Amino acid sequence: MDGIKALTFDTGGTILDWHTGFRNSLAAAGETYGETRDWADMANQIRRAALKRMLNLGKDAAPSYNFDGAHRAAVDEVLAANEMDMLSDPERHWIAYDVPHNFKCWSDFPAVLPRLRRRFICASFTILSFRIIIDTARANGLSWDAVISCEAIGKYKPLPEAYLMAAHFLQLEPAQICMVACHNFDLDAAKAVGFKTAFVRRPDEWGSAGAPDPTPNPAHDIIVDDFPTLVAQLGA
Amino acid sequence: MDGIKALTFDTGGTILDWHTGFRNSLAAAGETYGETRDWADMANQIRRAALKRMLNLGKDAAPSYNFDGAHRAAVDEVLAANEMDMLSDPERHWIAYDVPHNFKCWSDFPAVLPRLRRRFICASFTILSFRIIIDTARANGLSWDAVISCEAIGKYKPLPEAYLMAAHFLQLEPAQICMVACHNFDLDAAKAVGFKTAFVRRPDEWGSAGAPDPTPNPAHDIIVDDFPTLVAQLGA
After folding, report:
1. Taking 90 as the threshold, does the pLDDT of residue B215 lie above it?
2. How far is A214 from chain B (nearest CA, A)?
3. Is the domain of A149 the same as that of A54?
4. Does residue B221 surpass a pLDDT of 90?
5. Closest CA in chain B for residue A145
6. How high is the ipTM of this complex?
7. Do A36 and A116 fall within a single domain?
């Protein structure tokens, strides 16, 4: 891994715990109405519905919404599918907007970010909106060197143009950048355009249901269980 | 100034001291060849030539270069005009690239940025390249909440589209954002699309020559001599 100048971090899932955030907010809103559902499963339904709207967005036409728009559409869709249409507009806004902008980050990350920044440019490179990254960084005490949101690129991961534009903004060759993520689809796409890749396991990303694609592609340059181990393997 | 959620900072000139950086590097390179020039004036010539290439860039067609490209073109142009063609390519690259990526920031800023960030989103909003902001932040120990470079917008200040896109990325109304700069042209353009504006005087920006437009437009919401005073006036 010599010659690496920057680490680009997938942020939703890899840094932020969306599952607990959505699950708890759904449970709290449901309780207001005396409703009982499988809140963990509903949280995962929202994530799947939102990702479906975001991955490869911009491939054929300029995006007409960002991840905040996708969250709201996904929340409305999943509430309807689960017969929870009683939720008010402010409650839906809270779940779809306020909650993601305050997602907690996984506990092993805040302490290692400053260490990694001493040696590498550390950028959030994300399909989440600019504002989600700004707000969650502030809520969790994180300081990124830069936020590279696909919102500004207009082409969303895993489209190759997104990775190439991130490298262009960083003024680095893809081989000088290591993409860090807990998702093969993201890392595989980064590797396809020449990035180095580091898979960080997040077995709890989808709660007790388990991640849909938990086994790292052995082609990744680094495969670790947590961020302190990543630091050690990068010699940072 | 109630209701302000974010401060967007012009960065070249307002935060970074380009004049001293260019002047000293020109003097050092010239000394190698036993040359004597008015290095301070040459530094200002480079700045003027670079700005000429950047302001309003993207108005009629997509930009084909960023501020790093403009710096290199300006350095080559000014060296030629001053009969200093003897400088080698590595020396030109050092002056045009390495020096700007390591510009020092004005001494009153590093301590106030964390204070301002406690209350406001603080973003670098700049015509400088992404990488100049990333590198100068690292060199000066600054942490921005985000870097909004016109490089990613494709429309450069003072085009109104640049300010409106910055507000769009921040998900704020222009009136919820205060543009902070030492230049009327930047603040006047921000105000024209609805931003609040804060003029911070930088009498040494152009060295002993004095700034070309030093008198703040009285229409600005805040006019101060330094950043500690800005903090006080914002109640941060």
Report:
1. yes
2. 31
3. no
4. yes
5. B134
6. 0.96
7. no
Residues A69 and A113 in one domain: no
Residue in chain A lying closest to B172 (CA): A131
- Is the model's pLDDT at B236 over the cut of 90? no
Contact A169 B151 (CB under 8 A): yes
Q: Mark which of A61, A80, A102 sits at the end of a domain.
A: A102
Give per-residue pLDDT as tens, B52-83: 999 999 999 999 999 999 999 999 999 999 99
Q: Report the C-alpha gap between B68 and B135 in whole angstroms.
A: 13
Cβ contact B87:B100 at 8 Å: no
Please determine, for residue B33, whether its predicted confidence score (pLDDT) is greater than 90.
yes
- What does the angle CA A60 – CA A61 – CA A66 come to, to the nearest 5 degrees? 115
Answer yes or no: do B185 and B80 share one domain: no
Residue B160: phi and psi, rounded to 5, are -60, -30
CB A104 within 8 A of CB A140: yes
The pLDDT of residue A2 is 84
Contact A171 B131 (CB under 8 A): yes
- B46 & B107 share domain: no
A124 with A59, same domain: the answer is no
Residue pairs between chains A and B whose CB atoms are closer than 8 Å: 52
Q: Does residue A214 belong to any structural domain of this protein?
A: yes
**B153 contact residues in A (CB cutoff 8 A):** 152
Parallel, antiparallel or unpaired: strands B196-200 and B177-181: parallel
Query: Hey, are the CB atoms on B138 and A121 less than 8 Å from each other?
Result: yes
A126 and A229 together in one domain: yes
My answer on whether A152 and A64 are in the same domain is no
- Asked if residue B1 is part of any domain, the answer here is no
Q: Could you tell me the residue range of the domain that residue A161 belongs to?
A: 6-16+105-234
* Total of domains in chain A: 2
Percent of chain B residues topping a pLDDT of 90: 99
Q: Which residue has the tokens 């699309």?
A: B193
Q: Which residues of A touch B (CB under 8 A)?
A: 68, 117, 121, 123, 129-131, 133-134, 137-138, 143, 145-147, 149, 151-153, 169-171
- For residues B189 and B159, give the distance between their C-alpha atoms in angstroms, rounded to a whole number: 7
- The pLDDT tens digits for B91-123 are 999 999 999 999 999 999 999 999 999 999 999
Among B101, B120, B145, the domain boundary falls at B101
Q: What strands, in cross-sheet order, belong to the sheet with B177-181?
A: B146-149, B121-126, B6-9, B177-181, B196-200, B222-224
* DSSP run (H or E) holding A233: helix A227-234
Chain B residues within 8 A of A169 when measuring between CB atoms? 130-131, 149, 151-152
Q: Is A1 among the domain residues?
A: no
Instruction: Please list every residue in chain B whose beta carbon sits closer than 8 Å to the beta carbon of residue A138.
Output: 117, 121, 145
pLDDT band for B9, please (50, 70, 90 cuts): very high
User: Chain A residues with CB inside 8 Å of B151's CB?
Assistant: 169
CATH of the domain at A150: 3.40.50.1000
pLDDT digits (tens, 9 = 90+) for A147-163: 999 999 999 999 999 99
What's the pLDDT tens digit per position in A188-205? 999 999 999 999 999 999
User: CB distance B170–A129 less than 8 Å?
Assistant: no
- A117, A143, A169 member nearest B152 (Cβ): A169
